[in-house]
Design a protein that fits this description.
12% of the residues lie in helices and 35% in strands. It is mostly beta strands and 293 residues long. The structure holds 2-acetamido-2-deoxy-beta-D-glucopyranose. Its EC number is 2.4.1.207.
């Protein structure tokens, strides 16, 4: 009897505990040039509204890309994107963070286009100390070519969270204590690019890009960057522990965020390396951490 009485209390406590998490600060829209510069094929980037909105263009000669001016150790990075519509099979649009050295860290969003009316795929990956092979693939619950949606990364010492709008679609917790490297001492730049990848992106290269549908256009706005800016060689963030993303409520997802994450996992997952026992006979350690406990 006595133990029954404790149940509601425990339940309430766990609710309170799991509601510590919080939604990242709302991104602020700034012009492209505030945070970014073109990287290659400059004439394939079109600037509208004084750079408030930018189009990347892919044709059969070249794709294009841009990168952040600064390098960052931790923070919140987001982009509003409207992806290539219509027949976009073979076309890949990427938005990612990466350090520049050989044993690099990387946090990736990659959108793989598809034939008209077929769903594109969002692939995410995390590289730590040069090791990747942590692909997850999902379908989205909307058509990403119809409207702008916000794709963002929250990166602190505790976790890396991938958000689509306000929905966390993936979390990679710091599992250093389990022997898994976690990005913490290599500043990353933010990159985006649009290119042709019909050698691998479409069902292993089966579908080819239809160049009669070119040019392919991906549209961007937002360009929000809120990070600890560091020199490329820095080993730590000068304001470590003091920024909003370091605080308690951003050290884990909250109950609602876990429910949303589970909804994505249940309804939209195509592939998750964490559940691929052929490839990983033993569960990669970080996968034990990526859920509510
Ligand atoms: C394209 O659509 C087909 C059919 O629905 C699907 O099997 C495939 O995963 C989709 N994505 C890519 C990149 O091929």
């Amino acid at each position: 009897m006595a133990s029954n009485l404790h149940l509601p209390l425990l339940f309430l406590l766990s609710m309170a505990y799991s509601s510590l998490g919080a939604v990242p600060k709302k991104p602020m829209d700034v012009p492209f040039g505030r945070n970014y510069v073109p990287t290659w094929a400059f004439d394939h980037i079109k600037y509208n509204n004084g750079g408030a909105q930018v189009d990347l263009v892919l044709d059969k000669y070249t794709g294009t890309g841009f990168q952040s001016k600064g390098s960052y150790l931790f923070g919140h990075f987001s982009m509003s994107m409207k992806l290539v519509g219509g027949d976009s099979a073979g076309v890949v649009t990427a938005f990612y963070l990466s350090s520049q050295n050989s044993e690099h860290d990387e946090i990736d969003f990659e959108f793989l286009g598809n034939r008209t009316g077929q769903p594109p795929i969002l692939q995410t990956n995390v590289f730590t100390g040069g090791k990747g092979d942590r692909e997850q693939r999902i379908y989205l619950w909307f058509d990403p070519s119809k409207d702008y949606h916000t794709y963002s990364v929250l990166w602190n010492l505790y976790m890396i969270v991938f958000f689509v709008d306000d929905v966390p679609i993936r979390v990679f917790k710091n599992s250093k204590d389990l022997g898994v490297k976690f990005p913490f001492d290599q500043p990353m730049k933010i990159y985006s690019s649009l290119w042709n990848a019909d050698d691998w992106a479409t069902r292993g290269g089966l579908e080819k890009t239809d160049w009669s549908k070119a040019p392919f256009v991906a549209s961007y706005k937002g360009f929000h960057v809120d990070g600890c800016e560091s020199s490329v060689q820095a080993k730590f963030c000068a304001t470590q522990g003091k920024r909003w993303w370091d605080q308690k409520e951003f050290q884990d997802l909250d109950g609602l965020q876990y429910r949303r994450l589970n909804w994505v996992r249940k309804k939209y997952t195509i592939y998750n390396y964490c559940t691929d026992r052929k490839r990983y006979p033993t569960l990669p350690p970080e996968c034990k951490r990526d859920r509510d406990i």
